[in-house]
């Protein structure tokens, strides 16, 4: 069974990377360190934080977001409702 079928929110997170940031990722990349993703850089990290904050209407806890080094950990950080766990 695929991760996307067990947790459809993961598809939303992957969509942020592919559609909004232009960093092509698939389900296989969820445990890859962000620095190993082709096309990933620090500007994309800032853009991702901005996109998530805009989508959720909540500010992210920046240190926790910086420690989330994989798509899976970013997905977990967003919590079950898609919002950020904790606020700055």
TrEMBL record:
Q: Which residues form the Carrier domain?
A: 4-82
Q: Which residues form a coiled coil?
A: none
Sorted alphabetically, which Pfam families does this protein's record hold? PP-binding (PF00550)
Q: What is the official name of this protein in its record?
A: Acyl carrier protein
